[in-house]
Amino acid sequence: MAESTINRAALPTHSFEWGAIKWLVSPSTTPGAQMTFGEVLLLPGKGHERHNHPESEEILYILSGEGEQTVDDGAPFPVRAGDTIYIPTAIYHSTINTGWSPLRLLAIYNPGGPEQGLAQLPDFREVPAGEFPSFKRD
């Protein structure tokens, strides 16, 4: 049987003005994978603003920190460690860190693939495996 453990140290980190993402499983990098799974870090006062995934549903699981979530352009609601948010296919949503510490969450796309679109954002940077993203202070 092939090795199934993902070596996160061997994977790049995707860095943005609002934080960073480490994609641990993705159809483009994990043989046989149909979904995407990753850890997201949102910096204090920052977030992934209104967007959607036209062909994928998404699940967010908050690991630590506190934030504000919108789903389907509804009223913002608070999220914190232990909360799970389900976002249906093509629904607009946003996640903003409202705390002083980083907001850490897990993200799953089904089917995988929307993560590839993030590389088109103007503030996208790929940090090679083994290196750390730089978060500049204002």
Along the chain, the helix and strand elements come as EEEEEEEEEEE
What average pLDDT do the residues reach?
94
Shape: globular
Largest sheet: 7 strands, antiparallel
Strand content: 35-45%
- The number of helical elements comes to 0
Q: Return the structural class.
A: mainly beta
Helix content: under 10%
* pLDDT < 50 runs, ≥5 residues: none
Secondary structure tally: strands: 11
Write out the strand line-up for the largest beta sheet, numbering strands in chain order. 8-5-10-3-2-1-11
Determine the N-to-C terminus distance. Answer: 49 Å
Strand and helix layout:
Blueprint: E1 13-16, E2 19-25, E3 36-42, E4 47-51, E5 57-64, E6 66-71, E7 77-80, E8 84-87, E9 93-97, E10 103-110, E11 125-127
Antiparallel strand pairs: 1-2, 1-11, 2-3, 3-10, 4-9, 5-8, 5-10, 6-7, 6-9
Describe this structure in words.
The protein has strands at 13-16, 19-25, 36-42, 47-51, 57-64, 66-71, 77-80, 84-87, 93-97, 103-110, 125-127. It is mainly beta and 138 residues long. It is globular, with a radius of gyration of 15 Å. The N and C termini lie far apart (49 Å). The mean pLDDT is 94.
Keywords:
44% strand, 7-stranded antiparallel sheet, 138 residues, 0% helix, mainly beta, 4-stranded antiparallel sheet
Summary of the model, kept short:
This protein is mainly beta and 138 residues long.
